[in-house]
Amino acid sequence: MRVLFYPGCSLKNNYPEFEKSSLEVCKRLGIELLEIPRWTCCGVNFSLATDNVMRHLGAVRSLINAQEKGKEIGTKRVVTACSMCYNVLKRVNLTLREEPDKLDTINAFIDDQPNYVPELEIIHLLTLLKEIGFERVKEKVIRPLKGLRVASYYGCALLRPNKPAGIPVDNSESPTIFEDLMSSIGAEPIDFPFKTECCGNYHVVFRPDIVEMRTGKIIGSARSRGADIIVSTCPLCLYNLKRGNDALEKGERVPIVFFTQLLALALGVNSYLGDEIKQEILRRVERKGPS
């Protein structure tokens, strides 16, 4: 399977372990992620200004490049691992599909590229893995993470807004796709009340105290349910959660990693986890797993 891949800025610049572990996981599962040529920043947040479509240009230019590359390889699917990139690209694509006047405006403005035709399908890596089947993932597991209690943190971008339809990767009130994936690699998924709460987003720039308060509650909620580790799909969420960890006493902290890193560890490929946290995970698995 060949799928167009939009890595995004955070994976390239700040969290290369997220991109690399995603590529490793997909290769192990028989999926070839082909990076979109000449992609640009998605814009980070979807612009709610209805009279300013210019804020969508970064995303549209990348979608045009994906459109043209897709014609070469015969696909209209674009996958991204970053939940914020997914949210922005998905919403821009749906907006241009449903509001042709905005599409005409953008195509008239971008005169150095082909016109965009919003026929691409933007999906998150979680959705792609579900489509190929969590049973298939289970079959590829080399090192089952038996006994590892994992709290799957969804955050906002994978589940909100509810409309237009098609944005949430699962039921926005009671999602299970993340937990189902963790079960497929042998881990024990932990359900906790704050798994879909906002981490504080960009309040971290001007009001870090808000982020520390919110993430402290998220981490505390996961810890109260017995979580050994928290997994995330979002670079900003991971950054904020780690900041929240730093504000807690050592005994109150819970390690946080990207979901593809844990998946890669179970599949026996390079997880790009640091030695310390990797060994801690393996110690927990050996201690709790079957003899």
Please tell me about this protein's structure:
The chain is α/β, with parallel strands linked by helices and 291 residues long. The protein has 2 domains: 2-126, Up-down Bundle (Glutathione S-transferase Yfyf (Class Pi), Chain A, domain 2), CATH 1.20.1050; 133-288, 3-Layer(aba) Sandwich (Rossmann fold), CATH 3.40.50. Helix content is 48%, strand content 11%. Strand 7, helix 11 (235-246) and strand 8 form a beta-alpha-beta unit. Helix 4 (83-98) packs across helix 5 (100-109). The longest helix has 17 residues, at 57-73. The chain is globular. The protein starts with a strand and ends with a helix. 44% of the residues are buried. The model has no long low-confidence stretch (mean pLDDT 95).
Helix/strand order, N-terminal first? EHHEHEHHEHHEHEHHEHEHH
What gross morphology would you assign?
Answer: globular
For the biggest β-sheet, the strand order reads: 2-1-3-4
Number of helices: 13
- What name does CATH use for the topology of the largest domain? Rossmann fold
Report the top-level CATH class of the largest domain. Answer: Alpha Beta
**Low-pLDDT segments, ≥5 res:** none
Largest sheet: 4 strands, parallel
Based on CA atoms alone, the radius of gyration comes out at 19 Å
Q: What do the pLDDT scores average to?
A: 95
- How much helical structure, as a percent, in the residues? 40-55%
Termini distance?
Answer: 37 Å
**Beta strand %:** 5-15%
Strand elements, count: 8
Give the CATH architecture of the largest domain: 3-Layer(aba) Sandwich
Structural class: alpha/beta
Q: How many structural domains in the coordinates?
A: 2
